[in-house]
Amino acid sequence: MSALALRRSRICSKSLLAASFLCPLQPEPQNALLHSSKLHSSQSVRKNHQVLCFSSNSVLNRELQFRRRVFPSLSTHAAAAAELSTSDGLTVDRIVASNWAILDESESDWKSHAAAIAQSIQVIKKRLQWNKLMVRLDLLSAQLNKPNLWDDHVLAGKLSREHGSMMGKMKEVKALEQDLIEHIDMIKLAREEAEDSDLELESLKAMLEMRRNSKEKELEALLSAEHDSCSCYIEVQAGAGGTESKDWAKMVMQMYKLWAQRRGFRVTLVDEMSGEMAGIKRAPIRLDG
To answer: TM spans, by residue (predicted)?
Structure first.
């Protein structure tokens, strides 16, 4: 478990422990919402030998609100329609609309990191045609739930692959949104909890790493095309230059193979024509994945 995760766990545990001394947790009605504006400030009213606790700013209420927003269910693509927000209602769209300055990484504060990440998420959604993606997922889900789907194995396989690909893209974007919201909430929580000043620094480091990752995802989305999921062939041929050319061709082929394997592609050597002394004259490979 990372240091950041340990600190989060410690803050959550201490928050719940402190709240338990004030009043016992009561089961909440299903689908009930916390309306902090309707709660009074921290106080206890003794009535009929029972203590009724009200606390809009209590650690317990903040923790419960934090958990509801940070850990929403993403088990189905229907959850993608729900816009994730921080404990104070900050969403990706609102972050972009706030026009926070995006500074260089070395000069950035958490707002600058958040603005850069939110901007990348919006670009990715636009490139994926987010609303059309959701509609297509609904249609594919309905087709995959038909009892006679596998009567046509070819069609079933095609629909299943398309659904899996779209679900992967949707979950990837929602994971970026969820991580951003979580980091912002943790930074705000760290500022309120003076007992753990290192948490803010850890969250800032995590946001910086996320900023770089989201920029890579944005570039991938911009360079994506209709046939990106298809397999491809790469062939390297040695040109003029004798043995040195053939040796260089082999090194280039090895570079392509390592690059593909590190990114999760399955590499198959189709054919290879070796050089007389060293290297290769030509070698095609196939990439799947």
So the answer is: none
Pair 87, 190: CB distance under 8 Å = no
Q: Quick check: 179 and 113 in contact, CB under 8 A?
A: no
| Full domain range(s) for residue 259 | 232-288
187 and 94 fall within a common domain: yes
Condensed to tens digits (0 to 9), the pLDDT of residues 18-49 reads: 333 333 344 444 433 334 433 343 333 333 33
Q: What domain count does the chain have?
A: 3
Return all residues near 91 (Cβ < 8 A) that are at least 6 apart: 83, 84, 85
Q: Both 101 and 222 in a single domain?
A: yes
**Phi and psi at residue 199, in whole multiples of 5°?**
-65, -40
User: What is the residue type of 271?
Assistant: D
**34 CB-near residues (< 8 Å, 6+ apart):** 61, 64, 65, 68
CA dist 56 and 140 (Å) reads 44
Whole-number Å distance between alpha carbons of 116 and 155: 41
Beta bridge partners of residue 52, listed in sequence order: 45
Residues 253 and 125 in one domain: no
Domain final residue, candidates 71, 97, 115: 71
